[in-house]
Records
---
Amino acid sequence: MSATPRIGILGAGGRMGRILIQAVEQAGFKLAAAVERPESSLLGADAGELAGIGRLDVKIVGSLEEVVKDCDVVIDFTAPVATVNHLKICREHGVAIVIGTTGMNDEQKAYLDASATETPVVYAANYSVGVNVSIKLLELASKVFGDTVDIEVIEAHHRHKVDAPSGTALMMGEAIAETLGRDLKQDAVYHREGYTGPRERQSIGFQTIRGGDIVGEHTVMFIGEGERVEITHKATNRMNFAAGAVRAAAWVVGREARKYDMKDVLGFNDIQV
Ligand code: NAD
């Protein structure tokens, strides 16, 4: 890895893009390029001024092709079609790419996998270091408690969120189910009302709270006889995603062409629990 990786931000004018520009600077790395849609009214603006951190002398451009040679790695939080196009350019130039875009279909995911045979790709549905550490702790707790406790996942988000449970709550449920050899499709319980009968030990329960401006909170309870363990993550703003993605970008520069995730970035595979 070079000491100060040159990082390009794709979707620089978006909600995540602006925070990613801040995160690159906070981490002491070099913002090498900032890219927006070719028809964006932001082209030509200074990326630092756009992100509210003062002039950086990096102009927003309308295509990755223009700046790819200036980058060791790019971070892409855009939209699926744009991400596929960015993957194509990165694989042609052998530039590493960190992808946060969600909602890719199977064909787009297959293209991502194919690209990762030619250039390093990090992909994670959630770049928060805290969420990924929480998931590791959930795996530890699940392994130790086994079938001796009841497990419930409780999540809370702002009133504008349109899906439930959150993708992160489902990631947590999947990690628990996989550790315990359960199948989330069969064992998840999303609703309880009326005469439910006693709780099945195998169930993994999900409770959803929606209201106000809650950024995102997840608690998993391991509920036994006479004691209870709770593992909680609370997000207070989107910087947690951006900081994790910048950490992934610095980590992936110079690695072999492969698809990586946050477990690789955070070195979880080397930690025995
Ligand atoms: P947003 O709509 O605010 O920003 C997306 C930006 O990408 C926009 O500015 C848009 O103009 C730009 N864009 C679109 N096509 C482009 C192209 N061809 N070239 C350059 N720029 C292009 O959305 P957002 O809230 O910033 O989220 C972006 C994506 O990141 C979404 O898919 C979201 O779900 C995902 N996300 C992932 C994580 C994670 O941890 N993995 C966290 C937050 C958001």
---
Amino acid sequence: MKMLDKLFEKSARSIAQTSSRRGLLKSLGAVLVGGAAIPLLPVARASDSPQYPQDVGDPSSCDYWRYCAVDGFLCECCGGSYNSCPPGTEMSPITWIGTCRNPVDGRNYVISYNDCCGKTQCGSCLCQRDEGDRPIYRSDKSNDVNWCLGATSSVYHCSTAVVVGVAFEK
Ligand code: ABN
């Protein structure tokens, strides 16, 4: 025990001789100010959750902003949602792409209208807004296409509206 006491006394004396109270306060201040600045570094901001578009409106209504270029039955009314397929159906891997303005933030979002395939037509909430649609002879610019032709089953059930990005503003 005596040996421990001696050791601590020795190290305390040596610290007291080589440091000052002002020096200790200086280092403490630096630690406090440095610590407070850490959340301002880019690494902290990069870890923030991604910004999803804010939403208004009813996804089961054809007026909902994401449906501006849709042509089909809304999956929201068919047991799925605006961005997921109803159980027992498969999302088409190829799609029609539109650009819709979000009324909340005024920005244009790129929307992918993937069809859900594998069950007969849903029959509820038919919605045809067709913004940017061109006649079927311009098949690359027409939304009147059964995208299930690229899926395992070519039987069309309903359409989703998945936000895939923000459009560049000119
Ligand atoms: N993309 C909706 C759709 C499906 C079948 C036929 C026409 C349009």
